[in-house]
TrEMBL record:
This is Tryptophan 2-monooxygenase. It holds the Pfam family Amino_oxidase. GO terms for biological process: amino acid catabolic process; auxin biosynthetic process. It is an enzyme of class 1 (oxidoreductase). Keywords: Auxin biosynthesis. Residues 402-412 have a biased composition (Pro residues). Coiled coil: none annotated. Its EC number is 1.13.12.3. The keyword rRNA-binding does not apply. Pathway: Plant hormone metabolism; auxin biosynthesis. SUPFAM superfamilies: FAD-linked reductases, C-terminal domain (SSF54373), FAD/NAD(P)-binding domain (SSF51905). InterPro entries: Amino_oxidase (IPR002937), FAD/NAD-bd_sf (IPR036188), Flavin_monoamine_oxidase (IPR050281).
Length: 699
């Protein structure tokens, strides 16, 4: 789930003009993770080496203490993507495991709401759904390609087992358009994006706002196009760091950025950045050159680019997110300014459901499946030493532009169908994770206490494993059980990291309308509108990227931070009422209330705010200093390597599916290293790629 909207009208132009000057240098987030471990991971590195030198067990010895080779070696807590991906890797390596999911579905914070009237075969009802959790990925980002790799690998297994109805397919996600609407500060009427570049949006003092007019008065450089100075600020704030990433060695660039890890975005803007740093955009009317940016400027930037209170998070987080944005652009043609994003056809829920289907087969992804998928999407070069992009699971609208070269993957292997084997257990709620050093001939292990829903009653199970991967959001480690903690005897550092790791609240609502009044915008009709924005509590309207042939449709409301907290404090129906007012504010020329299909929970409406499975926050978003002080701690295995904690918070990809995948990969890598299974690590890298496994940086 992308948490940054970048609604600033000059945002895309700034990125495209910069990126045209230099080639894509590869996976920024992996380089950042490696750099953090190299420069701030002494404790992590020493602890891993200590654990691996002290271990008495390997895979052979473990199995000699168990009843059979089918006895699970790894227990996995949570059926979100971190848990599912951990299982898929282990399955592909022939290592047995079990996954315990507390709810009646898999996917965690990937969750699609379907109206009770949804019908995929009826054009008028096939569009009645929306994404409660993650809803899009940048199509070409080197960091995000493992998500597409997973989909292709799953499809190979599903096709082999004649489960084609469960295969996953990507469609285009329309992120923005020139005709998406904006309205702020009691403007007389909304405007469209193509007309917003020189519009002050009523933030100027002469229009009732608080910005001195010098910031929102059109000006220009000699021979250049006109601009508003306020819209040039972020270019100068982020520019030195982005330029360093493109033009300098990664180590040097990250060192420059990490000097400011203790700054929030707001603190950097108002206490570090000075007016003189605006360079050619500076005007003496703004103040003295050594003055910092005023509160009103920081407020404007936060309001237009993210959400109320989001600039309290780490400055480093914000800069890296900005760099990530290039991942939504075409790396094969730097002159292409377009944004390319994709989403799962018929709902993201199909993705984790496909994972579950494969996990419950005896045999999963084969080495040939994983290798072929990497070539298909350009994760690795083909046999001729070239990279291309031509995955076989894209809808027509998601096909890459003509400037993207096709891939040349090897032919798929036929393989053999597999028998069923249950490894994913639904409605199994883990309430306690306990280390016991006496298990497995004193090699040590983990004991799980699991409550299983049996109608209105619960049955309690005790399960034991040499290794456990726990993948819950940090807030979910408060079990709510009487006299029983989820964890006991965690290290001081781990307990603190779990407690302090910053999570961002999120609110979403899905509201059904009897007619799609938002499509009546001329040439853009039926092609996807992107995101409409305002300063009302609902903040964003995310237009659907599908279903324009239907009469009715669903609008999605999305906001974060304080905006989300305030919406979440209302009753369900009150939330819908606020959303309707926000939509009407952007559409005074439409009969919004007349088009509303009525308040009928789960049929016409759905609102989400911090459900019990999210554990108190939608996704991790580090605060100041947390990359330096918490990242390595979150990654470090506990109890002599028997417990690994995974999830997108245990990565540098906060708020994205790939963060969960990377953390799972790293946890499996830790377990294989602990067992001395170097050959299986090589097989894993060949099948799944060389994802961000931070301990690679310490070898």
């Amino acid at each position: 789930m992308s948490y940054l909207s970048f609604n600033n009208p000059n945002r895309r132009k700034q990125v495209s003009s910069k990126r045209a000057q230099s080639p894509n240098k590869g996976s920024m987030r992996k380089a950042f993770s490696d750099w953090l471990i190299k420069n701030h991971g002494d404790t992590y590195a020493s602890e891993l080496k200590k654990q691996r030198s002290q271990t008495k067990s390997n895979l052979t010895k473990l199995r000699s203490t168990q009843k059979s080779s089918d006895t699970p070696v790894v227990g996995i807590v949570g059926g979100g993507f971190a848990g599912l991906y951990s299982g898929l890797i282990l399955q592909s390596l022939g290592i047995e495991f079990e996954v315990f999911e507390s709810s009646n579905r898999v996917g965690g914070r990937i969750d699609t709401w379907y109206s009770t009237k949804y019908n995929s075969k009826d054009p008028n009802n096939a569009c009645l759904y929306g994404e409660v959790g993650g809803m899009r990925i940048p199509q070409f980002s080197p960091d995000m390609l493992p998500v597409q790799h997973l989909g292709l690998s799953l499809n190979a297994v599903l096709k082999r087992n004649k489960m084609v109805d469960k295969m996953v397919e990507w469609r285009k996600f329309y992120y923005d358009s020139d005709v998406q609407r904006l309205r702020y500060n009691n403007m007389d009427a909304p405007i469209i994006k193509e007309n917003s570049t020189l519009n002050s949006l009523n933030f100027g003092k002469d229009e009732g706002g608080d910005l001195p007019m010098v910031w929102v008065t059109p000006t220009s450089q000699p021979g250049g196009e006109p601009y508003l100075p306020i819209n040039m600020v972020l270019e100068k704030v982020n520019g030195p760091f982005l330029d360093a990433f493109r033009d300098e060695p990664f180590d040097k660039a990250f060192k420059k950025l990490m000097k400011f890890d203790n700054y929030s975005m707001w603190t950097y803007l108002t206490n570090k950045f000075k007016l003189k740093h605006l360079g050619e955009y500076y005007d003496p009317k703004m103040g003295k050159k050594n003055d910092h940016l005023p509160y009103s400027v920081a407020s404007y930037l936060e309001t237009l680019n993210v959400g109320t209170g989001m600039y309290s998070v780490s400055f480093v987080e914000m800069v890296l997110a900005l760099y990530d944005w290039e991942g939504s652009m075409n790396p094969y043609d730097h002159s292409d300014p377009n944004i390319y994003m994709i989403t799962m056809n018929k709902g993201m829920q199909h993705f984790p459901d496909a994972c579950r289907s494969v996990l419950n087969l005896d045999q999963g992804v084969l080495p040939e499946d994983g290798y072929r998928a990497q070539v298909e999407i350009g994760m690795i070069e083909d046999a001729q030493g070239q990279k291309g992009y031509s995955p076989t699971n894209l809808t027509k609208d998601a096909q890459p532009p003509s400037t993207v070269p096709p891939a040349n993957p090897p032919k798929p292997v036929a393989g053999k169908p597999s028998k069923e084997k249950q490894r994913v257990f639904m409605n199994h709620r883990v309430v306690q994770v306990e280390h016991d050093p006496l298990l497995y001939d004193t090699n040590g292990g983990i004991r799980l206490k699991v409550k299983v829903a049996k109608g209105t009653a619960e049955e309690t199970l005790t399960k034991e494993y040499p290794y456990v991967i726990s993948t819950l959001p940090n807030g979910a480690y408060l079990s709510g059980e009487l006299k029983t903690n989820f964890f006991d005897h965690l290290s001081f550092a781990k307990a603190r990291a779990i407690r302090e790791c910053n999570y961002m609240p999120s609110f979403k609502a899905f509201i059904t309308f009897k007619d799609q009044f938002w499509t009546k915008l001329g040439e853009r009709q039926g092609k996807g509108l992107g995101v409409g924005t305002s300063d009302r509590a609902n903040r964003q309207i995310v237009y659907p990227s599908y279903g324009y042939e239907a009469q009715g449709g669903v609008l999605q409301i999305y906001c974060w931070a304080q905006d989300a907290e305030r919406m979440g404090a209302l009753s369900d129906e009150e939330r819908v009422n606020e959303c309707l007012k926000g939509i009407a504010y952007l559409y005074p020329d439409a009969d919004v209330y007349g088009s509303f299909a009525g308040y009928k929970p789960e049929e016409t409406t759905k609102t989400w705010f911090w459900d019990n499975h999210a554990g108190g926050g939608a996704f991790a978003l580090f605060g100041p200093g947390q990359f330096t002080n918490l990242y390595e701690t979150l990654l470090t295995p506990e109890f002599n390597g028997h417990l690994n904690i995974a999830g997108e918070c245990c990565s540098v990809h906060h708020g994205w599916i790939v963060g969960a995948l990377d953390s799972a990969y790293n946890s499996v890598n830790n377990i294989l290293s602990q067992m001395g299974e170097t050959e299986k690590i090589k097989i894993m890298e060949k099948m799944w790629g060389r994802l961000t496994a931070p301990d690679v940086a310490i070898k």
